[in-house]
Specification:
2 strands; 74% helix; ABC transporter involved in vitamin B12 uptake, BtuC; globular; mainly alpha; two-stranded antiparallel ribbon; 315 residues; 15 helices
C-alpha cells in the first residue's frame, strides 16, 4: 500500500468513525468497538518488539495496567482530561519499556520472556499497596461530560480509541518500511550476524521496547472512562498477556497488517463467545485457537497467503 493510499485510508476511517458517533444510537456498538480497537493498539504495540525484533514479551498486562492506573492517578490528582491521561500513560509506558529494555534485553529467549512476566507481578504488587489509586479494592472513575460535539461518553471514548488505533498502525507501518524496520528484521533473523555487520542492535531493541511500551500503555488509558471502575486483578490479568501474544501470531508478525487482522478476528470471537460462555472458558478458547495457529499456520494468516507453490513440486 502506497503512502498516499494509506493516508487517504486513515482520513476515511477517522471521518467514518466521527460520523458513526452521531449516526449510531445503540451504545453496545461503541462498547464492542472500543474493545476491538483496544485490541488493535495492544497487538500492534506488542508486535513492534515481539514481531519485528523477535523478543517475545509476556509482560503486556503490566503495560496495560500501568496505562489504566496512570490515567486513574492523573484523574484523581489533577482531574486531567482524557487526552492528557493518554499522553501520561504513553510516557509512563515508554519509560518503563526503556527501563525494562536496559535490564532484560541483554538476555534472549525464554529468559527474557520470564523477566517480562515477572514485571507484571511486581507492578501488580505495587498497585495493590497504593491506596491513592484504590489499592486492592480498586478505583471508581466518574467520567466528566464529554466534549459538546460527542453525544455520549462512550462515543467519545470510542473515537479516542479509534484515533489511538490509527496512530499505532501508522507508527508500526513507518517502522516497518524505514531503516529501523530493516535493522529489526536483521536482528530477528540473526542478532550476532546483524551486530557484526554494523547494525546497532542494542539501540534498536531499546527503541522497539520504548515504542512498544508506550503504545500498549496508551491502550489502557481510556479504560477507566469506558468501565468507570478499575481493579488490579483485571488490569494485570493473564488474559491481556495471552491476547497480546495471540493476536499477532494469528494474523502474522512480519507486517503491520497481521496484528490488525488478528485483533479484529479475536475480538469478534470473544464478543460472540462472551454472551454465551463464562470468562474462564473464553480464555480456554483463546488458548486453543493460539495452539491451532502455531501448529497449522506458524506465520499467521498472512503467511498462508504468502506461500507460493514451487515449480516441479507437488503441492
Amino acid at each position: 500500500m502506497s503512502g498516499w493510499r494509506f493516508i487517504i485510508g486513515v482520513l476515511v476511517v477517522l471521518a467514518g468513525g466521527a460520523m458513526l458517533t452521531h449516526e449510531v444510537t445503540n451504545a453496545y456498538v461503541f462498547y464492542a468497538g472500543f474493545v476491538a480497537l483496544q485490541y488493535v493498539v495492544i497487538a500492534t504495540g506488542w508486535n513492534i518488539l515481539g514481531g519485528y525484533a523477535g523478543y517475545v514479551n509476556f509482560g503486556s498486562g503490566a503495560f496495560v495496567g500501568l496505562g489504566m492506573y496512570a490515567a486513574v492517578f492523573l484523574f484523581k490528582a489533577i482531574e486531567a482530561p482524557l487526552w492528557v491521561q493518554v499522553l501520561g500513560a504513553a510516557f509512563a509506558g515508554g519509560v518503563m519499556g526503556l527501563g525494562m529494555g536496559y535490564l532484560t534485553l541483554r538476555i534472549q529467549g525464554v529468559f527474557f520472556s520470564i523477566a517480562t512476566l515477572a514485571l507484571t507481578v511486581v507492578l501488580n504488587t505495587v498497585i495493590v499497596n497504593w491506596s491513592f489509586v484504590g489499592g486492592a479494592r480498586g478505583a471508581t472513575v466518574l467520567a466528566p461530560p464529554p466534549p459538546t460535539w460527542f453525544p455520549s461518553t462512550i462515543s467519545y471514548v470510542f473515537f479516542a480509541m479509534l484515533v489511538l488505533a490509527v496512530f499505532s498502525i501508522a507508527v508500526a507501518r513507518w517502522i516497518e518500511k524505514s531503516w529501523i524496520g530493516r535493522g529489526l528484521a536483521a536482528l530477528r533473523a540473526d542478532e550476532q550476524a546483524a551486530e557484526c555487520s554494523g547494525t546497532p542492535t542494542l539501540k534498536l531493541k531499546l527503541f522497539a521496547a520504548t515504542v512498544s511500551g508506550a503504545l500498549i500503555a496508551a491502550a489502557g488509558a481510556p479504560y477507566p472512562y469506558y468501565a468507570s471502575y478499575v481493579e488490579p486483578a483485571s488490569a494485570f490479568g493473564l488474559a491481556i498477556a495471552l491476547n497480546a501474544l495471540a493476536m499477532p501470531l494469528i494474523g502474522g508478525t512480519r507486517s503491520w497488517i497481521g496484528p490488525l487482522i488478528g485483533a479484529l478476528l479475536l475480538s469478534g470471537l470473544e464478543q460472540a463467545a462472551t454472551v454465551t460462555i463464562p470468562t474462564e472458558v473464553n480464555l480456554l478458547i483463546v488458548g486453543l485457537v493460539l495452539i491451532g495457529f502455531v501448529v497449522a499456520a506458524p506465520d499467521g494468516l498472512l503467511g498462508l497467503f504468502d506461500r507460493k507453490p514451487v515449480k516441479g513440486r507437488r503441492q
